Each structure stands twice: as C-alpha cells, then as structure tokens.
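Weekly modeling sync, notes
Attendees: S.R. (lead), two postdocs, one rotation student

Agenda item 3: backlog of single-chain predictions. S.R. asked that every request posted to the team notebook include the full sequence so nobody has to chase files. The rotation student volunteered to paste the first one in as an example of the format we agreed on. Action items at the bottom.

Example entry:
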Amino acid sequence: MPEENEENGMTREQVHSSALSRPSGHFSQAITVEARGRLVFISGMTARGADGSVVGVGDIETQTRQVCDNLTEAMRAAGGSLADIVRVDVYVRNIEHFEQIHKVRREYFGDPPPASTLLEITKMVSPDMLIEINAIAVIT
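Predicted structure, as returned to the notebook:
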C-alpha cells in the first residue's frame, strides 16, 4: 500500500513478496518511488562529530545515533530529510550489533523504512569506528 511522506508529498510504496522472508530488522524488501525530483547520493557517514573526532568509541548505539544525526544534517543541507531516504548500505565491524543498530534506526526512520543492506567488514578508516552508512534519497 502506498504511503505518502507528509513532509514532502513524496509517495513511497513498500514492496512485499510472499516468496521472500519478512525483514528481520527495520528495513523494507524494496521501495518504489515516483522518479520525479532530485536524487541525493550520500557518501558513507561515520560517527565523526563536527570537530572530526569519533563519537561514542566502543558504543554501537551512540555511534549509530551519530551516524543518523550526520545523515540528517547531510539531508538538511541537500534540502530534504531522512524521510526522503529510500536506500541505505550499512557497514559494521560486528554483525552481532544488529538488534542495537535497528533499535536506533527505528528512532530515526519512519515507515516505510528504506531498503537496506547490512554487511560486516573487518576494518574502517579508524579502528574506533563501528558503523558507516551511505544513502540514496529522492527529494521532490
């Protein structure tokens, strides 16, 4: 069923297939969006504060919040909001943090949530970083 984003009037439809298992976290199998508007491609956001220091060293929830705050600021600078994000790619150092990450994502991303991929990787730019998220948004 299509859901209209009240902030910008964009209609996003969450796609479900009974041939696929239901998502285990806060994400959609797929999202459809009318292709009118501006596409925004956000580079990988990490848990760096405005001063460049890593926020929440050793704390995945704090780092996930900082990453989401950074995504929020990038979207604001582009003229949009997190509600415009239709896809995220999430890179984590420890896949066991899945539940904690999705707990925080639920605080930032409404329904329908963006389509998502989550991967465990061995290294990031800083050994203090636990998570990085890049995103694609459509601003109408």
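Discussion: group reviewed the output briefly. The helical segments are 60-78, 98-108.
Action items: rotation student to repeat for the remaining queue; S.R. to check formatting next week.
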